[in-house]
What does this fold into?
Amino acid sequence: MARESTGGRRRHHRDPAHPRRRYRKRPVEVYAIRNEGEWVPILEWLDAVTGTKYPGTRNPDGSLRLGGRPPITRNDDGSLNIQTPEGTMRAEVGDWVIQGVQGEFYPCKPAIFQATYEPLPPRPSGS
It folds into this structure.
């Protein structure tokens, strides 16, 4: 049986029972921080978004906090290892770190972040 040439392109067959559908991403609010290569701002952000006090940040008296291992760790080059539901992912310096809608963390390249997210005004205190 001879096959019709597609010029090296993959041929996509449309199944009338499953037409192509378009989807729009639901508007959700996420917390995010840009990895500038500094560790303490990442830990302080983790403290704020999770309510957990991780080691490496300071107690109110100025002493260094001790505690459990955070879901994000820093490499010597300033990049981050992020524990995600899919496994460990790396965020380079300049990448964004996002806390997803289910509390998970994941990295995001700057161009994707800019195309997908926009800043929100701060919430009034008490909300």
